[in-house]
User: Fold these one by one.
Assistant:
Number 1:
Amino acid sequence: MKKKILIIEDDPAVADYLITLFEDNGYATISATSAQEGFSIAQKEHPDLITLDLELPDEWGPRFYRKLSADKTLKNTPVIVISGLSGNKYAVSKAVASFSKPFDREELLSVVQKYI
């Protein structure tokens, strides 16, 4: 069974790029354009990994992460932050990795492979 990655990203170009990148490398993907949508999908789908943008239309990424961490079925899901904000690696200190846009696709894939 394919490992499932939830992509929470409100920029359609970045979301499409990540979907293609992960699916071309054998992963199943689901995507959400807001934190609220991402959280309800995560509860339903139980993804193996989540990529999280910090600047979302409805909620700040770290707040979403706190909600995720408080959910006993989701709290151990690895999260990779992908953001255009500088200093993003400090926003979610427990994220397994933080990438700034634009990011290196090979580096991102190697982190994904390491955690799922």
Number 2:
Amino acid sequence: MDPYITDWLNLAIRFAHVITGIAWIGASFYFVWLDNHLEKPPEEKAEKGISGDLWAIHGGGFYEVAKYKLAPPVMPTTLHWFKWEAYTTWITGFFLLTLMFYVGAETYLIPTGSDMTQMQAIAYGLGSIIVGVGTYEVLVRTKLKDHGLLLGIILLVLGTALSYGLMQVFSPRGAYMHMGAVMGTIMAGNVFFGIMPSQRALVDAVETGTTPDSKYGLNAKLRSTHNTYITLPVIFIMISNHYPMTFNHNAGWIVLIGLILVGAAIREYFVQRHFGKNKPGLIVGALVATVAIAIAIAPQKVELSEEQKSQKVSIAEVQTIIEQRCSSCHSESNTDDIFTTPQGGVVFTDAASIEQWAPRIKARVIDAKDMPFMNKTKMTEEERLALSIWLSADKDKG
């Protein structure tokens, strides 16, 4: 596919994915907040079967919201459902996953040096989603659903194993995105397999004049609760491709699990605030854990020996390396078959531009070694060393 067309498809689908995601997450967060802020209703409301109510003000008006314990005695003429936000977010996310990691498997998904074919990569990717979501659906339908802590521990162990397995098969970026795809599909599945059937059962009970079974409401609330704790980790994974320092190393799989727990802890803090409970330890713990992770995975600074420091690398040699290994993706006229515009706004045109981006070269090419992207241009360790020697001499001069 023409890279220019791919870029526009990427933009359109990603934009739609972000917009629908905002709508879904916004609605989800609002209803969790709403449910957790309901207060005991006055007697006249309680006699109507209302279990909680609240007052709010927004946009220059007052709102009175009430929630029935099970269902109203008569179905209202207009009943608003919240489902398409979830479905369209998943659909656009799957299209984006397909475009980036399946159509572009050789660029983004298959590790450098692997003999995996595109079809094999797609099969492994789809298989991981099906197995991951299927396992969750089996577990959440057992008696474990009544033992939240135990279920959470089991899911954490299985998620850690999946994270590790994906990192062994795919590129780090592809592994992270597939972990996000599994979690996002679980969220959409909670709506499709759990929340919506439960809500339809409640509506059917009211329309047929029978007493609604409380298990439907409890099942929907359980699935909704699971979704609220998955939300922040999924958002992190969505933006993680911009921050390769989180995944471009051997510990990427455990870093992912650590940051998933951080996201869940932050969400728990705000859920507790809904009940008027301030637990700053959750936020402090999340921040401390994040800092600890950042320190633990910080790239090792390249230390040159005295002999290496005494060597001379000219700017002409540096320009040759940059031209051969970097300019295909970082020039005014890219020659790469996928990245047709300068990535990250970094353009190498002459010695002055290389000097300008010297700190970036050191951070990404020398220390983190996540550039060139997936080492697509096969930069050698000798070339990285040459750049390091030049940068060291350049720094000494400055």
Number 3:
Amino acid sequence: MSVPTQAPIAAPTIPGPDRSPRTPRFQLPAGACDCHAHLFGPQARYPFDPSRRYTPPDATLSDYVQVLKALGVSRGVLVQPSVYMTDNRLILDALGEQRFPLRAVVVCGPEVSDAELERMHALGVRGVRLNLRHAAGVSGDIAPRMAERIAPFGWHLQFRINPDEFVTVGPIIEALPVDTVIDHMGQIPTAQGIDSAPFQAILRLVEGGRCWVKLSAAYRMGTQPHPYPDVAPFARALVEANPDRMVWATDWPHTTLTKPMPNDGDLCDLLADWIPDEATRHKVLVDNPARLYGFTE
């Protein structure tokens, strides 16, 4: 009987993160949560989907926990990356290790069984991601049906949307029977300004009270280098619109980045500028993610 051959290990096509995160200039409060990070590899155990847009270097659970400890972050949320499509084994295995307080957001299609949803919930899954920016992602057409499936678990739908589509997609999001989360402040190009129709659509969703936004990935929005001063007005406007619906994230390991790779300590320090009020920062870093992702300890 023939033995299947192992697929060859593909070389990375994108850079990896800064492997030496520095300590932030202000101490993060106990219970602080990083609400968006990806894991990759090792490829031999967790092969990438052949239709992927990029090949990342390994970024393992051990690597991520090291980053969180260096930053003083107490909790983390793993988000299924596009290179794995609907194969959620890596982040589910990471949850199963119970090495660090973690939750996860998966990608799944309409064929997922109720039993699998129940299993994932028990492991710590709290949402389903729909990446509408790339054709290889799961279609947004499944959003209403998926929302009905996950509503009994108290999960949310997490969206990554093309900026120019927020005006038309906003009413659809508002009509869903579950809370929703928008990736990376909507990734509105800063040149459009905070008065642009797409960003105003996001503010309306946030003000409605059932839509959350991740204050993350400033380097994906702006044209200016760190500390991304052209992004600050967007972050402040979101916090002002509804601080109870803001969460923060590193976006580690910063995939497909063509700009200088940030140090995660520098990304933490942005919060002191975006949210100067300590009580509001505590809400964004601790209280809000505890509610959204169901952290109870």
Number 4:
Amino acid sequence: MTTISLQNLGCSKNAIDGERILHLFTSNGFTHTQECSDAEIIIVNTCAFIREAQEEAIETILSMASYKTNGKCSKLIVCGCFSERFRSQAQQKLPEVDIWTGVNDWQTVLKDIAKSTSVTPSFERTLFEPIATQHLKIAEGCSHHCTFCVIPSIRGSLKSRTPADILDEAQWLYDKGARELILVAQDTTRYGKDIGASLVNLLEKLLAQTRFPWIRMMYLHPNFISDELLELVASEKRVCSYFDIPLQHIADPILTAMNRKPPSSKIYRLIEKIRTKITDSAIRSSFIIGFPGETERHFFELTEFIEFARFDKLGVFPFSPEEGTEAYNLRPRPVNKTVQRRCDELMTIQREISREILESRIGSQMEVIIDRVSDDHDFNFEARTRFDAPEVDGRVMIRSGNFSPGTITKATIIGASDYDLFADV
């Protein structure tokens, strides 16, 4: 049996593509190994969203290429966004790679290599631990054209999947052991606008036709969070009252330069509306610091907004000028030292907010999902509340009990740090 290994880079949406590619091989008799040194075929599924992701892609490709001399690798395959975006240049500069394939042609390119004869549903994929928490991609591409973003040029415009196809995959995931279903797209709120469907209607179908105890949504655009969606989240306990809303900035001149909507006044009202309608909600956001034209006044507006919104979770990223985007040529850009100082200031404010929120939960009982056995000998398990998404948010460290990963149970919160909770069961 030919052995194959996968290196998945980038976001959860890209990871799903990598799992589908791996399934193409394993469903046709190839053996999956996590030991790269044992793999005869190595696949690197890449990201190219920002410069750091591109650098990681190159480093990983070169690292995997070393197994062609120090391991068993005879074929190195690179796919994903980096390959889609830079294939022509990379083919010349990285001759170690045997096959390049992008986000749209991998099935055609890899089918012969996989000696594909089996016929399986297109959504089937090789799942990784923890099996109990799985992402489901409901749409591809994006039609917003934010001036800093390369996604439309890589992935194309919005292409929603049919509700029937999504429901089939959701049931398949449940049958495989998934208990937390996480809906993802480049903009989840715009799901279905190209096929006469909607996110609310999709959620209603998932609630009626599947038995997932937790359904979570990621990547909600602030301009398209409807009252109907808020009412559904407020009334349905199985839909986690977790709002992941990448806002990018709050100063109106910067939002305009980013081609982001709505204006700041409506963003303030949206935060107030969510807090009012759903009192037990958690809001996560992310911001780009150092966008061209950002002044100290714009940054001050952002710090004021962070203190007003009191986000449960927050990500802060320095602006990455990407060639091919409108923002690439915008000036002036704040110097790197200024950008780093602003990032640090925001995270200092957020750290205090996060600790205050988490400390307020000490003594309460919260529902958690067990992710894995803890590597820390002081604790038995790592878990999450319904207010925490995997990989990007905090953990609940459980010091008692005996559970299988995927178990959803009540835990008593006994302590808190800046971003994590500690609990007994």
